[in-house]
Amino acid sequence: MTELREKLKVELDGASNLLVASKYTIGLTGAGISVESGIPPFRGPGGIWTRYGEPPMDGYQRFLADPKGWWEKRTRTAGISELIVKIMEAKPNPGHHSLAELEEMNILKHLITQNIDDLHRKAGSKNLAEIHGNMTKLRCISCNTRWDRDEFEIKGTPPRCPECGGLVKSDTVMFGEPIPRDVLAKCQIETTKCDCMLTVGTTAAIYPAASFPMLAKRRGAALIEVNLYESELSHLCDVVLRGPSGKILPLLVECIKEKLQEKSGST
Ligand SMILES: [Zn+2]
Description:
6-stranded parallel β-sheet, 15% strand
């Protein structure tokens, strides 16, 4: 750990300076942070889709055409079942905990995640926009009311929303499904407000999430990237921290605490 801190000394210093100076930092996370908790990614080696095949690109249209069939079939789909089991077993890693701690320290004001695994909430993050939904929840596609899976009493197939009678499906956003309007609006508002964005474990290849750092940058915000690999964002970033987020984010929190201490000591 100290070795990594030494190796990334300049970057950690730069990133913590930006975060301490920022008035409104938001975070954007992707699959990379969850892989460190044992959740397989969708794409790439060992990915769910690599092994089971990609789901149909018109999954949402198929659901709309036959919601009864979707509800009857969904628990028997191997790839989804494996993912659900992995997600239920997964625990947040130090990266998730560090982001929750940054929120508690009032450094991080909001977090946008592309992950559906609930790990940010489990770690204690409160101001959270789950742009691709949350696998542990169900959602009414008409009024966007959401329920925990365990709390929703399924009556009939397909189940209907007790509020408005709309169709209920997994909160997870399917291929072909529009991002729920309430979440998308929240992400856009937060992106417009921020003067610093911390991206973690995302290759920034999937829209609309990929557009948020670019929009923030255009509006003059600083960008900090924590990622194992070079991404399409890297060249835009003010600081790039290359490595596993579960190791880097705790170091970043440590550096910020030191800076805040120095600051309070010198005044
Ligand atoms: Zn409804």
